[in-house]
Amino acid sequence: MRHDLRSPPAFYRSRAFPPLVLWGLLAASGLALSAVPSWRAAVGLSPVLVWIETAFALWAGASSCVSACFDWWFKRIELAVPKAARACEPFETTLQVDTHRPVKGVTIEAELVDRYFELHPEGKWESRTQKYEQHELARRVVLYGGSTHGFTAIFTAPMPLTAHESMANEMLASLLSLAGWLVPLAGHAAENMREHGGYFVRFRLRVGLVRRTFEKRIISYYEGKTILVG
Question: What values do phi and psi take at 16, rounded to 5?
Answer without folding.
Answer: -90, -5
